[in-house]
Specification:
By secondary structure, the protein is an alpha/beta fold. It has two domains: 169 residues, Rossmann fold, CATH 3.40.50; 146 residues, Response regulator (Rossmann fold, 3-Layer(aba) Sandwich). The strands form two sheets. The protein has a seven-stranded mixed sheet with strand order 7-6-8-9-10-11-12, sandwiched between helices. The protein has a five-stranded parallel sheet with strand order 2-1-3-4-5, with helices on both faces. Helix 3 packs across helix 4 and helix 7 packs parallel to helix 9. The longest helix has 24 residues.
Length: 325
């Protein structure tokens, strides 16, 4: 009996650390994504994030629980940010400035890893890029040198362009700097800039139609949450009025836009998984530097070009990372 009791007790001692480690390792993360779950591009980015987390050893249903929320406008994201914070996750992945702002209004203590944010310092999300200092850190999706690239692409695909309408969210702090960079670059391309507001669908439609009345015009769409919310309308208007348009994200081109150049958003979700892993293992977001993009992609939609009567130059097609036909 003593030997049997000893063996039973020994088995319990051996098993206890395994059970304890499993209980201690069960963590919870949230995801607040600016976009719709049914969108193929959004789904691919989320799937990449989940896959890389598993590569780090975080397996949903085993040692991790993932609560994901999606929304394509400010009101929806604010409500879902509150929902996620109330679940008390160990860390939240946030996609877009709107999502980060909503989460920071809900909590200044839950760790946040962001992607697709234009100006985290100007927006008040972090103290500085090297030492964020608060509960948020992550990956920016813009460098001001991109402005010249957008104008260059616009002139390459339509050399006759002399005017460029810039669709931008006037309330976005990050887009103030983006517009200023475009204004500085425009004279060297012989292009006159004007702005088109995106406060709501009516403003976008009215101002885009007014811009299209004069010849030799094209559009540059800045990467705000509002642009994503009104993506279908913007693409429809560019087709109806044969306005060549350059977008900041392949998601526009995958849905019928003409051409995009910008950071590889899937790569940002991949890199964000490494920060989430580090926070789950005990590091603080305020100690992790905000990082700039390292991969960019040029995407062209040939079908849209044909619809608009444009012949994409071979040099542009040769540089493209993806050509949608």
């Amino acid at each position: 009996m003593r030997r049997r009791k000893f063996i039973s007790l020994l088995g319990g001692v051996i098993a206890w650390p395994i059970v304890a480690r499993a209980q201690q390792g069960r963590r919870r993360i949230g995801m607040l994504v600016n976009g719709l779950e049914a969108d193929a591009e959004v789904a691919a980015r989320v799937a990449t994030f989940r896959r890389v987390l598993q590569d780090f050893g975080w397996v949903p249903g085993t040692n991790l629980r993932v609560d994901a929320r999606f929304g394509d406008n400010d009101v929806a994201l604010r409500g879902k940010a509150k929902e996620l914070v109330e679940l008390a996750p160990d860390v939240i992945l946030a996609s877009s400035s709107v999502a980060v702002a909503a989460l920071l209004r809900a909590s200044r203590s839950v760790p946040i890893v962001f992607v697709a944010v234009v100006d985290p310092v100007g927006s008040g999300f972090v103290a500085n890029l090297a030492r964020p200092g608060g509960n948020a850190t992550g990956f920016t999706n813009f460098e001001y040198g991109l402005s010249g690239k957008w104008l260059e692409l616009l002139k390459e695909i339509s050399p006759a362009i002399r005017r460029a309408g810039v669709l931008r969210d006037a309330a976005s702090p990050g887009e103030i700097g983006m517009l200023a960079a475009l204004q500085s670059a425009a004279p060297s391309f012989g292009v006159e800039l004007s702005t088109i507001g995106m406060r709501d669908a009516a403003e976008i439609e009215h101002e885009t139609i007014a811009f299209a009345r004069a010849p030799n015009g094209g559009l540059i769409v800045l990467g705000s949450a509002l642009a994503n919310t009104h993506r279908d309308l913007i693409i429809l208007l560019t087709d109806q009025h044969r306005l060549p348009a350059v977008y900041p994200d392949r998601i526009f081109v995958a849905n019928g836009g003409l051409i995009s150049y910008g950071p590889d958003r899937t790569d940002q979700f991949r890199r964000a998984a490494s920060y989430v892993d580090r926070i789950l293992r005990g590091e603080r977001p305020g100690d992790l530097p905000v990082q700039a993009p390292t991969k960019y992609e040029l995407v062209v939609n040939i079908k849209t070009a044909k619809t608009q009567g444009l012949a994409i130059p071979p040099a542009v097609l040769a540089r493209a990372d993806d050509v949608i036909e």
